[in-house]
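EI: anyone free to look at a 232-residue chain?
SC: sure, send it
EI:
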Amino acid sequence: MSGAAGPGELRIPRVAGIVLAGGMARRFGTDKLAAPYGGETLLDAAIRAVAEAADEVVVAIRPTGDEPALPGGLPVPIRVVRDLEEGGGPLAALPGALDATTAPLVLVVAGDTPHLPPGIARLLLAALAGPGPARPGLTVGGDRGRAAAAALLEADSFRPLPLALRREPAARAAIRLLAQGERRLRALLVALAATAIPEAVWRREDPGGLVLRDVDVPADLIEPLPENGQEG
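SC: here you go
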């Protein structure tokens, strides 16, 4: 979680975790986010992962249907909001989720991605909250501490999720893009001139690439073996 920092450490402002859980899961065939994963549901795993790095969690779900059961025992508050548009994708879900919090920074993850290693969350947030320009090799574009968005590079391409955002400029940009008919989350990264975390940098925190692991089909529910202490 964010909060007071020790001597020489970066102080991160209050952070909200946003879990995008409104997808239709057509490739999965059943309620994907309710599928078992590691002794809980896939959605619970995603919520717990982002809760470790946040002061509160917002779960964005479909406009209709039952609300999911939420995990208990979290150290931070959690709330559910409804997407305004059915099947509109993650960009369309963002304005409502961003409006549900006043935290200046947000971490956005997908409900079908059960891993957010703490070191990855710290890298993304530090790209927004640092006091000045990036250390050499930390970013590809933008300055650490002045960026409005940060995301991971896989090879030479942005991964749309997970990402860190400054809430207010991200909300304005998302609304503007949606009004223009845009539905791609990558368009938000472009509009905000997102800072890129190179793969060589974030792999030091997550050598096995667990942060990239998502669940599209039932076979993806097989849990990866622990690597270098990342899981276990």
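EI: The longest helix spans residues 167-179.
SC: 👍
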